[in-house]
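Lab notebook page, bench 4
Experiment: in silico fold of construct C2
Operator: M.H.
Input chain length: 156 residues
Purpose: comparison with the prior construct
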Amino acid sequence: MSEHEQVAGMLSAKNAAPLELDPSRTALIIVDMQRYFTQPSFPFTDLFEKMSPGVCSGYLRRVRENVIPSIRRLLDHFRSNGSLVVFTAVGTETQDGSDLAGWARGLDEAGLNLLGTRIHRPVGDPSWQIDAPQSMAQRCTRSVSNPWSIARGTAS
């Protein structure tokens, strides 16, 4: 047996063991479920369709058939155990997207060049909203406008 096969076997055995989490010390963090990442006809998918026609159909099908149902199951489990659930979203608070991370600014530039519009919508735009049916977002009680405040334990 090669070293690679030995390591793969150890990892497989480790991954087969149940993962025990302390609900009081565990949070579920759901990242980037904004409408423009999960539904067709928003600049995000329009850009990729423009670059490679048909590329988003499989992506959007997986989001609809696998990702959202999996998130719902995780939400049910975490909420039933009283664990914290956090939704994050990417949006810009400037008209030019200058506050976005480099990769997001790059997508914005590609959108401007190919579609004539930015990819990342301003905070508050309907497409920026979390793509969570009422059952997913039911206990959302606060938003954090300053992402660094959550690390200090204060929401602003």
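Observations: DSSP finds seven helices and two strands in the chain. The mean pLDDT is 81.
Next step: discuss at group meeting.
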